[in-house]
Structures are given as C-alpha cells and as structure tokens.
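Appendix B. One record, verbatim.
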Amino acid sequence: MLTGFASIDAAKEAVHLDVVEFLTKPCHLGEVEQALDRALRRMAPTPPAIVDRPDLPPPTAGMTLEEVERQHILAALQHNNGNRTATAQELGISRRTLYYKLEEYQKQGFIEG
C-alpha cells in the first residue's frame, strides 16, 4: 500500500487487509521494488508437500488409477478425521474437487451419506 495520507486508521485497515508493505509518500523507488518483490513471492503458489504416509496401504497390482485415487483420498480423509478442508490441502486439490469426488464415491456406494 502506498499512500500520501498516512494515518493510524489507514495503517490499521492495511493490517486487516493483510498488505505486504505500508509505504508513505515520498518513498524511494527501491522501497517500492522491494515491496513488489515481497508481494510477488507471497502470491507464488506453494507446491503441495509430499508427505510420507506409511499408514497408507500400497497400491495393489491390477488396481485402476481411479481405485488408487479413491483409496488415497479416503485414507487422507480418515487421516484428517473427516476434515475436508485439511484433506483437500493435504492432497493439493480444491475443496470443490474433493466434494465432487466424495459425492461420486457416495453414489457408487463406497461411502455412506
């Protein structure tokens, strides 16, 4: 945030908006560049962590990709005690995708509603 009218109220609002930097005019170009660099790094997507999960059973020979995926999703859901947000984050998928998959598994009879 760059402002020519700095005030305590403006700074408080900036904190609530989770701004990267609160700059007041006049400021040096280098400060603006550093703030932009920090903002870009914050926006960069973080690749999902690869978690070693010895509690997951290894895929069985002859399983289809869909079966392996279902097994992995349901095991992650169980590992997170049914917390769908945490499960989606662990799997590196959106909650919408997780909800869609779980709805399909319910229709197929793999889980109860």
